[in-house]
Amino acid sequence: MAGLFRNLFSPINMVLATRTISTSAICCKAQAGRHKRTKNRSKPLTYEQFNGPYQIHHRKSWNTWNTSKFYSLFTANLLDADDEIRASQTAVEDVFIRKFMFGTWHRLFVSDVIIKRRHNLIVITGIIVRSLQVRKLYFLIGYTEEMLSYIFKCPVKIELQSTPDRKDVVFKYV
């Protein structure tokens, strides 16, 4: 029995026992939304990508603007269950719109897709590359507006800006 206590309180076991709890500041380090630097600084970032998520509303704006619930600010009614359900539907619709835009406008967008909701109108904005003929560009705009209007049963408007080269949108290389 004495040998058991002698091995239990040996210097090696005491060192191992004191190192079981680790308290470090690394666990609290925020990693989300940060882009990893490359050795030769060859990764291009746009202005939206360069500013992290913690800088939203200081240097960066939201990618989705929903003004359809502003009527509740001017009335005395409290939020009811319909408004809460609509918020989740809006988020799902925004994901669908972004997937639809990147699938239809394949490799043409050089910026993020910005979705603005004004009452019953959905406005989709972004920056594209001028690599298409004008006829095809107008066809894609009309096709996208008609398809999304039919799917969401509300008017959809697309406002695009174009740039001659993808490098014009690059803000910084990391």
Automatic annotation (TrEMBL):
Protein name in UniProt: Ribosomal protein S24
Source organism of the structure: Larinioides sclopetarius
Similarity comment: family membership: Belongs to the universal ribosomal protein uS3 family.
Gene Ontology terms: biological process: translation
Transmembrane segments: none
Cellular localisation: Mitochondrion
Assigned GO CC terms: mitochondrion; ribonucleoprotein complex; ribosome
UniProt keyword list: Mitochondrion, Ribonucleoprotein, Ribosomal protein, Transit peptide
InterPro entries xrefs: Ribosomal_uS3m
